[in-house]
Structures are given as structure tokens and as C-alpha cells.
Design brief:
The longest helix has 29 residues, at about 250-275. This protein has about 450 residues and is mostly helical. It has helices at about 15-25, 30-40, 45-65, 80-85, 95-110, 115-125, 125-145, 165-185, 190-205, 210-215, 250-275, 290-305, 315-320, 325-335, 345-350, 350-365, 380-395, 395-415, 425-440; strands at about 75, 150-155, 160, 310. The chain has one domain (about 15-440). It contains 19 helices and four strands. A hairpin with a 5-residue loop joins strand 2 (about 150-155) and strand 3 (about 160). The strands form two sheets. A two-stranded antiparallel ribbon has the order 1-4. Strands 2-3 form a two-stranded antiparallel sheet.
Length: about 450
Amino acid sequence: MGLFNLKENKTTVKTEIIAGITTFMTMAYIIIVNPAILEGAGLEFTGILFATVLISGVMSIVMGLISNNPYAVAPGMGLNAYVAYTVYTGGITWAEVMGAIIIAGAMLTIMSFTPVSSGLLKAIPKSLRFGLAAGIGIFLVIIGFSDSGIIVTGSATILELGPVNLQFGLFMFGLILTSFLMIKKVKGSFLIGIVGTALLGGLFSIVGWGTTFIDSTFEPIVVDWANIFALPNTVYLFDFDLGAILNPALIIPIFTLAFTDLFDSISTFLGVSEVGGLLDEEGNPKNFKRTLIADSLTTMMSGFAGTSDATTYIESAAGVEQGGRTGLTAIVTGLCFLPFMFFSPLLSAIPGYSTGPILVLLGVLMFRPLMSLDWSDYEEAIPAFVAMIMIPLAYSITYGIIFGILFYVLLKIFAKKAKEINAWLWVTFAFAILAFVADNFLL
């Protein structure tokens, strides 16, 4: 496997395959969730499902081939809601929205071939990278707990403990099982944890204990074996209108989509690479330019596929933690997606309580970079903390990096150390302000 330099990256085909399957299992929810969100805006569920699987599968493979990094891609959460309920409004067709995404992706692709890409990377201080990694970790923990029903919206508080029932017990079983496997350094511990917990839930479903003897609220795992096959609905494939660039109502969304995707992608690259040690000799994410090119192409191709723009997924950290180090991991993840063009009901049967523990444990792992942060240096520690805490509180990786950059630059200015700010950081600072203003005052 000279194409992926497996020996140089200290990995094997077996390890990469396990890592790729693990990444898929932790992000497979997008196949169901993305169509569900866009369906709420009036789009056809099955049409978006096909587009979601197509872009996730094909472009994860492309990411692996171009970047030789273990990053998988799929339609971004948050971005899909923005596209569905803000961009796709009265008087604007879905084809025009897809045209806007293609244009935004083309802008990013052109930018990724210029010095701007490496410049923006150099603009992010090390301390902010550490904070972003930890913030993404907290973000994953919240997703894991909430999607599993362990934490819910409180009646008198923002959050509270959910019902202590059988699903709660299965989640805790998965968390303890996977933690034990990690402690014992068992290869494929994440995948074993997911499958083991799902099988136990399936056993409760088969014997009926969950709905009768133990917990009447238990939602059993149900697979409609008679209707697991369906031909793809290609209604949105290649349905785009590049005339969107002439529509004044779409000019700001085009730039917002581009900047949001750029910040989201860079922060994900930085966070996952710091945790997984996917760094070059200068301490930067390896193959960064090629990774950004692949990510930008993914955004552009989303418009051709017919779904909201796809981006690199933070759940890729699951595969990285399982030993994934090369593009072979991303290719395996992409191949796992493709069959679900036809067998989506099978995937919908995977319960959240079996994948949730993995996201929680990823949160633990993504706190490791904070060990390298000098907490006594407030000029570095405060912006890092702001970046870290804004990601889960605002439920947005993008806002984490925006607020982190704003605080970093402003504190340097107030401390009369503006000379320490390099030219690229000033450019990034301007981008951060533009993205914040556009998202909050111009849309």
C-alpha cells in the first residue's frame, strides 16, 4: 500500500479498515438526520438521503486519495439548518440554493490553491489550537449525551438528567465496556463497544424484556426486513442554477457559506490533528493544503449532488483514536456509506445509545492538548478558554474559532503588543468580524 505510506505512518491495512468502519459508525446518523432536517423545509426525504449518501461516500474517498488523511466528510450539521431555514426562503428555488453552494465551494477551492490557505493556518496561534481541540471535545460529549437521551432540556434549567431507564443503562454499559477496552488498549475498542451495546439492545428487543418486564418506555431496535431495499431517488441530482450569483438575496449567503465552511474545516483539522498527532515537522496539520483542497471540492460537489454543503467531520477523531493515520481510513469510511443508497433502513436501526458513549470518550481524548497550554500566561490562556467554551455553548465550532480569534487579537492590542500579530492573523481577524456580522446582522 505504497499509495498511503502505511509503514511510514506506522499503521497497517487492518488498523485502517477498523478505523474507517469506526468513523462511519459514529457519523452514520447523518444519513437519517440530514434528510430529516431538510425535509422540514419541504424537500423530499428520499431525494436528500440519496444526495447525503452520495456526497459522503464519494467525497470521503476523494479526501482520502487527495490528502492521505483519515478525515471523512458529510453534510455539516448547523450548515444544513442554515441552508434549509435561512437561505432556502420564499422566492428562492432549491436549484438556486445549490448554485450558491457550488459558487461558495468554487471560491474556497480557488483560495485553497493560493498562499491564503497556508497563511490562514499560520494565523491560528498554538494556544487557540489547543482550545479548539478541547472545545470540539466538549461539543462531542454534549452530542453523545443528548442524542442518547442521557441529558435533556430541563423544565427549570437549561439541561438536566434524562429518565433513568433501560436506554440509560445500555448507554452506561457501552461507556463502561468501551472505557475498559481502551484501558486494556484493545484494538478496535470503539467498534467493539458500538456493536456490543447494539447487540445487547437487540437482545432486549427480541425477547421483549425492554417493553414489558424491565422498562415500558424502551424503544426496541426494529428492522423492517421486508422493506430494507429501495432504489435511489435522484430528484435533486445535478439540479442547480448558477444564476444564483446574480440574485442579490444570495450574495451574502454565498460568502457566509464560504467563510463558515472555511472556519469550520480549519478548526476541525487543527483539533483532530493535535489529538491524533497528525502533524508535520513544523507542528502543523500534515498535508494541510491538499486536505483543504479536498474539503473545498466537497463543498462545491454538494451543490451538484443536491444537498447542503458537506465538510470534514469531527467524528473522524473516532477513527484516528483507533489508529487511523492515512487516507485509507477515509476511503473505507466512504465505501461504508455507499451501500446505504439502497439499504438505509438498516442504518436507521443503529441506536443512539450505542454510538453516544464513543462521542463522550472522544471528548476525554480531545482534552489532551490542554496539557501543553501555559495557563499562567493569560494572553494565551483566556482566548484559548473562550474558543473552547464557546463551541459547546453556542453549539457551533465556527463561533468557537471566531470568538477565540477576536479575543486573542483584542487582548494583544490592549496589552500594547499588536506588533506580535502577524499579517495573516490580521486577515483572519477581519474574516472573523465579517463572518460574525454577516451571520447576526445581515441575514
